[in-house]
Automatic annotation (TrEMBL):
Enzyme's top EC category: transferase
Enzyme Commission designation: 2.7.11.1
UniProt keyword annotation of Iron present: no
SMART domains: S_TKc
Full protein name: non-specific serine/threonine protein kinase
Biased composition range(s): Pro residues: 352-361, 413-432, 440-454
GO MF terms, alphabetically ordered: ATP binding; protein serine/threonine kinase activity
Keywords: ATP-binding, Kinase, Nucleotide-binding, Serine/threonine-protein kinase, Transferase
Length: 564
């Protein structure tokens, strides 16, 4: 057992966060007058021992002492009470009430989401705690499920908000300008992410994220990297899950407004959530249902929100640690990335931000107070990346990722047919060598027949392409333009008229043909003689041969007449 000051003994660690380790501890003797709760010898307490890096920072120690009165006077049934602050040598510690029970992050992981009614009632109690602290001018700035402890009494869960003032303590100009940041991007308000001035509305945003997570099991914004998550806080709208009732969604959506001035005050949020819980429960009467449906009218913003002190570097709710502090735990509620910030933590939106890379070589120390906030640099870099990599439609034939290495047959150069100019989005830059794909001669780009609308382009582009399409079709000659349509001979469109015309024409032809045959052939004679077909035919053949013989006889030279 290790003593903390002369009054406390650390017994066992309860957990470790980004800013320190929380211990179960025992009171040795009654604390002095400077403590908010003197306590009794033998009493069990929780003590958060701040990390050495924080404790050894003069700014943090100064702030710790200055904030002492604020932290100690913050009392509310839903706030974990800070009983004492200990500053001794290199040690900074907060003595708190011990809360028996899991934190909300662990509870959600183990039990899954809450029902909408339970989520609304639990968040209402957190909003009560925020209302009390905001009225006292204290903004939490790091609201997240891991900072809500669940005291379990008689089967009921009583949420207690903890870590008040920790973000405030870490607001040290010396620390916030260093190159390593920790924080929880999943819960950060857009104005904090951008380093803009903050008010108590950042806590309402955090409460909205927390409420969303309570009913769905996950925060609304996630992504492949912490910066991606921050980017979504700035520009994406939360997607409404089908399981969230309308009135509850109204509350969530209002808390998650990008504009802090449109978020409700903590007091109104608490009231609104209770009205919603009454109106969406199974025993709700029509008046309660009606009130819940009109909850939007109750969610007025705070006319005078509590301001976050404008300390240099105080524009973000992250805790800041010097290099090399702590190990990275991707499953933890909050953890510190190693300085190299590998991709391991990228997928966990509740993980902390990677460290900001140091400035250009030759510059010693961190950036000066006039420089942009390191988070702004990171966000700007992320935005720049997005601007460069625009999502556009790409003709499949020009997509290097879809092309299989192909043997090229030598062809005579082909003149592409003249096409009318087509509107087409910007070309995707072709990758240069070193893309990992064999280089090959580029085939002639096919004329584009269809450029999909932008929405469809966006959906098509990011899909991974695993197959190679069949080789491009040979080009078809351009079609002659169609002649204008002739006016129909049957403008009335009488059914069957076209067919009747054909029939009449056929009858006419048959008639003429019959007449010609009758007149010009020996048919009349045949019928008149009454002979058989073959008999008549042989007669006819005999007369033809006779006729030919007569012709031959007529051509023979006449015999000489000298015999007489
Ligand atoms: N007053 C308390 N009583 C009992 N357990 C506590 C108390 N305060 C904190 N704990 C436990 O100690 C653990 C670490 O708490 P801590 O506040 O350091 O973690 P964190 O919120 O994840 O990190 P941080 O807020 O520093 O980013 C938590 O799992 C929490 O359950």
């Amino acid at each position: 057992m290790r003593p903390v000051g002369s009054k406390y003994l650390l017994e066992e660690p309860l957990g470790r966060g980004a800013t320190g380790t929380v211990w179960r501890a025992r009171q040795r003797e009654t604390a002095g007058a400077e403590a908010a709760v003197p306590g009794q010898p033998g009493e069990t307490v929780a003590i958060k021992v701040l990390k050495e890096e924080l404790a050894s920072d003069a700014d943090v120690v100064m702030r710790f002492l200055r904030e002492r009165s604020v932290l100690l006077r913050l009392t509310h049934p839903n706030i974990v009470r800070v009983r004492d602050l200990v500053v001794e040598g290199d040690l900074l510690a907060l003595v708190m009430d011990l809360v028996e029970g899991p934190d909300l992050h662990r509870y959600l992981r183990e039990n899954g989401p809450l029902t909408p009614v339970a989520a609304a009632l639990l968040t209402a109690q957190i909003a009560d705690a925020l209302g009390a602290s905001h009225a006292d001018g204290v903004v939490h700035r790091d609201l997240k499920p891991a900072n809500v402890l669940l005291r379990q009494t008689g089967g009921e869960m009583h949420p207690m908000l903890t870590d008040f003032g920790i973000a405030r303590l870490a607001d040290s100009p010396g620390l916030t300008r260093t190159h390593e940041f920790v924080g929880t991007p999943a819960y950060i308000a857009p104005e904090s992410a951008e380093g803009r001035p903050q008010t108590s509305a950042v806590d309402i945003y955090g409460a909205g994220i927390l409420l969303y997570e309570l009913v769905t099991g996950r925060p609304p914004f996630s992504g492949g990297s912490a910066l991606e998550v921050l980017h979504q806080h700035l520009s994406a709208e939360p997607r409404r899950p089908s399981t969230v009732p309308d009135p509850l969604w109204t509350v969530i959506e209002r808390c998650l407004r990008k504009n802090p001035g449109e978020r409700p005050s903590a007091e109104n949020l608490a009231r609104g959530l209770r009205v919603v819980a009454d109106g969406i429960g199974v025993h709700a009467n029509s008046a309660q249902i009606g009130a819940a449906e009109n909850v939007g009218a109750l969610l007025a913003p705070d006319p005078a929100p509590a301001q976050v002190p404008d300390a240099p570097g105080a524009a973000d709710p992250t805790q800041v640690l010097p290099h090399g502090a702590g190990g990275y735990d991707p499953n933890g509620a909050t953890s510190v990335l190693p300085q190299t910030g590998g991709p391991a933590g990228a997928a966990d939106p509740t993980a902390v931000l990677p460290p900001v890379p140091p400035g250009p070589p030759g510059q010693s120390g961190g950036p000066g107070p006039e420089d942009p906030h390191p988070w702004q640099n990171q966000l700007r870099a992320a935005r720049d990346r997005n601007e460069q990599t625009q999502v556009q439609y790409l003709d499949p034939n020009e997509d290097p990722l879809r092309r299989r290495p192909q043997r090229q047959v030598a062809r005579p150069p082909q003149q592409p047919p003249q096409q009318p100019p087509q509107r087409r989005p910007q070309q995707q830059p072709q990758p240069g060598p070193g893309y990992g794909y064999p280089q090959q001669p580029q085939p002639q780009p096919q004329p584009q027949r269809y450029a999909p609308p932008p929405e469809r382009q966006r959906r098509q582009q990011p899909q991974p392409q695993r197959y190679a399409p069949p080789p491009p079709e040979p080009q078809r000659p351009a079609r002659e333009p169609r002649p204008p349509r002739q006016r129909s001979a049957n403008p009335m469109r009488i059914p069957g008229l076209g067919c009747l015309k054909g029939c009449l024409f056929t009858v006419l032809i048959l008639f003429v043909a019959g007449w010609l045959v009758w007149e010009l052939s020996p048919l009349q004679d045949w019928i008149g003689t009454g002979k058989g077909y073959w008999e008549q035919l042989s007669d006819w053949f005999g007369s033809v041969t006779g006729w030919i013989e007569d012709l031959g006889g007529a051509e023979e030279p006449s015999a000489p007449s000298g015999t007489n």
